[in-house]
Amino acid sequence: MRWFWIDRIIEFHSGKSAKAIKNVSLAEEHLHDHYPGFPVMPGSLMIEGMAQTGGILLGESHGFKHVVILAKIPKVVFHSWACPGDQLVYSAELLDAREEGGMTAVRATCGDRLVAEAEIFFAHVDKSEAGPAGAKQKNFVFELGLLDVLDVGKAGDGTK
Amino acid sequence: MPSRDEIFEKVRETLVDALGVDDDEVTSAATLIGDLGAESIDFLDIVFRLEKNFDIKIPRGELFPENIASADSGFVAAGKITDAGLAELRTRMPHADIEKFAADPRVERMSDLFTVDMICKFLAAKLGA
User: What mean pLDDT comes out for the span A23-29?
Assistant: First the structure.
């Protein structure tokens, strides 16, 4: 399994905001244990997708020169849940971007329904500090591979 | 120009948001790490929030100096901050109670320099209050 918790970026305004979607599928194995007979997208993985959306937004604002790590979630509220077949839209807004890190506000919605909202705080780590092993850790918001989600939308009908 | 009380109230709000502590835990004498449970990453979060709430810029290391207590800083000997280190602290942290710390300058006590009062004094100087 690849550590991608968003499927596609659908809007991107450099330095300001980004929107990504996550299609929840019954094929995802963890949904069979979470919970048996009542599959819902785990909140922790929703946070991961929200952080990937915000992390790419922050990373891009600095030309991807820093390794962006999820440092802290000062606030998160879950208002409802997401089930197989639901499409979550993660809308991230960049509140603050500095050399040392940045702060984002991210909302998860399913149609008109608010599912979760969070403040997500990121720190920058230099590539040299991260080390060859460190850079592969899953708490790093993106490796270069995740940036492919920026291009996925081109594959279907050629539009983005 | 905000009064000292106004500064304290805003600092209290900032720390409640950043650290998830209760209002009444944020007293003037409270230490950020020991009393309020702050971790290293929280310091960056606090700086961000103070900048926003007070509409100021705080350059890196100005409020929370880095690398004074690390083993290779040259300011540590036998687990204590040296006289040169104390002099450095007086320059870089003019709003902290260095004299109290100097009486027993063990490295592990250095985190006690970071108090709510220190933040308020720093902001008062910065805002010219």
Answer: 95
* CATH number assigned to the domain comprising residue A105: 3.10.129.10
Tell me how many domains chain B contains. Answer: 2
pLDDT in tens, A114-143: 999 999 999 998 776 665 544 444 444 555
* A130/B18 Cα distance (integer angstroms): 25
Residue B90: give the domain boundaries. 67-112
Nearest to A74 among B17, B52, B60 (CB): B17
Write down the pTM of the prediction.
Answer: 0.81
State what percent of residues in chain B have pLDDT above 90. 81
Residue contact B44–A100, C-beta within 8 A: yes
Within 8 A of B48 by CB-CB distance, chain A residues are 96, 98, 101, 103, 121
Determine, for residues A103 and B45 on separate chains, whether the beta-carbon distance falls below 8 Å.
yes
Q: Do A103 and B60 touch (CB under 8 A)?
A: no
Q: What is the CATH number of the domain that holds B33?
A: 1.10.1200.10
Please identify every stretch of chain B with a pLDDT value under 70, giving residue numbers as ranges.
129
Number of domains in chain A: 1
User: Is B74 found in the same domain as B36?
Assistant: no
- Return the ∠ at Cα A104 (arms to B116 and A95), rounded to 5°: 75
Q: In terms of CA atoms, which chain A residue is nearest residue B51?
A: A96
A124 in catalytic set: no
Tens-place pLDDT, residues A63-112: 888 889 999 999 999 999 999 999 999 999 999 998 889 999 999 999 99
**In angstroms, what separates the C-alpha of B52 from chain A's closest C-alpha?**
9
Domain check: are B18 and B73 in the same one?
A: no
Is residue A65 within 8 A of residue A23, CB to CB? The reply is: no
Strand ordering across the sheet containing A8-13: A8-13, A17-23, A87-97, A101-110, A113-125, A67-78
